């Protein structure tokens, strides 16, 4: 099955008033298949949200390709770009800020149907159908956002995204502002909608426990670059990159027992405006050696079939099947 999203060597750089360049995303490649959820993990400032905004052309890529539905969206302009945005939608972290407080819920959802070109005579029925798909009664169409709970507002955000019939939905910390019980409900709703419509999700989260439940594959970012990609089980049960191991070691364990020594992560991430030479993680890495200081490791398929950017993990033998496919 062909990927619905293909990102190749994506770079997003920002200039600074005082000179210099911030390399927010620095050569990232991955793909997402229809019906698949790719999780994007990493600390704040690693570039996760910049990738999301580049996929929707909110941020303009500096270079690279973003192919969605077989079209290179980095080359689209005008009406073609407007039409593309119906294929890719975003569900934001704060459902209250992403909804117009002066609009009734029905009008908010109806806007998506208008963009899709649904005739006026069918929009009321379309609103009812979308509310039903996200588990809300039709009577909620008459309410305002402040009359709903956080979980209900997020369901409205999802209904609005579904209204344009997208192929891809970007979930940028979409459940992090919700209570744990409500978070589980929204995650289950997203999975049900994915099975129903074959949606592809880019699921961004700093919460690895949530990521473990939501994602089929996980890509780990550090300072604008991917450092490890694997299936959910690969990444969570046997991480190869030292940064991934440190992130997982920081996840709280009920009772505080049953885990070996923690892989401590010292210091703060370097500034993307002044990244260190070699491996960007070397100032904080417990395994760093002279090679790490001078040579940046590329993302390669390793001896166990995993994709990792680390000098300490042996590469797979060269030959058929050794190429990297994120």
From TrEMBL:
NCBIfam families: oligo_HPY (TIGR01727)
Name this polypeptide is given: Peptide ABC transporter substrate-binding protein
InterPro entries, sorted: AAA+_ATPase, ABC_transp_ATP-bind, ABC_transporter-like_ATP-bd, ABC_transporter-like_CS, Oligopep_ABC_C, P-loop_NTPase
Biological process, per Gene Ontology: peptide transport; transmembrane transport
Family: Belongs to the ABC transporter superfamily.
Domain spans labelled ABC transporter: 5-248
Keywords: ATP-binding, Nucleotide-binding, Transport
A molecular function (GO) term: ATP hydrolysis activity
């Amino acid at each position: 099955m062909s990927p619905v999203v293909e990102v190749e060597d994506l770079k997003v750089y920002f200039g600074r008033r005082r000179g210099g360049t911030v390399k927010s995303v620095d050569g990232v490649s991955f793909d997402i298949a229809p019906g698949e959820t790719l999780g994007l993990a990493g600390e704040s400032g690693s570039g996760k949200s910049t990738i999301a905004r580049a996929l929707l052309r909110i941020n303009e890529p500096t270079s690279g390709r973003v192919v969605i539905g077989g079209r290179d969206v980095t080359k689209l302009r005008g009406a073609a770009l407007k039409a593309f945005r119906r294929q890719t939608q975003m569900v934001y972290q704060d459902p209250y800020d992403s909804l117009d407080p002066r609009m009734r819920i029905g009008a908010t959802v109806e806007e998506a149907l208008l963009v899709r070109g649904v005739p006026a005579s069918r929009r009321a029925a379309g609103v009812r159908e979308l509310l039903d798909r996200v588990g809300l009664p039709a009577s909620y169409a008459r309410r305002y956002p402040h009359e709903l709970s956080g979980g209900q507002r997020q369901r409205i955000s999802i209904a609005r995204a579904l209204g344009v019939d997208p192929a891809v939905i970007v979930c940028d910390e979409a459940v992090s502002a919700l209570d744990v019980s409500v978070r589980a409900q929204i995650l289950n709703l997203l999975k049900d909608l994915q099975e129903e419509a074959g949606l592809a999700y880019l699921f961004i989260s700093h919460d690895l426990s949530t990521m473990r439940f939501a994602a089929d594959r996980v890509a780990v970012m550090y300072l604008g670059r991917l450092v490890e990609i694997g299936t959910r089980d690969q990444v969570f049960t046997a991480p190869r990159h030292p940064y991934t191991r440190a992130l997982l070691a920081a996840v709280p364990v009920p009772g505080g027992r049953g885990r070996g020594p923690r892989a401590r992560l010292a210091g703060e991430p370097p500034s993307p405006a002044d990244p260190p030479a070699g491996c960007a993680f070397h100032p904080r890495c417990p395994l760093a050696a002279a090679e790490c200081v001078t040579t940046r490791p590329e993302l390669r398929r390793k001896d166990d079939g995993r994709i990792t950017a680390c000098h300490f993990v042996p590469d797979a033998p060269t030959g058929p099947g050794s190429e990297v496919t994120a």
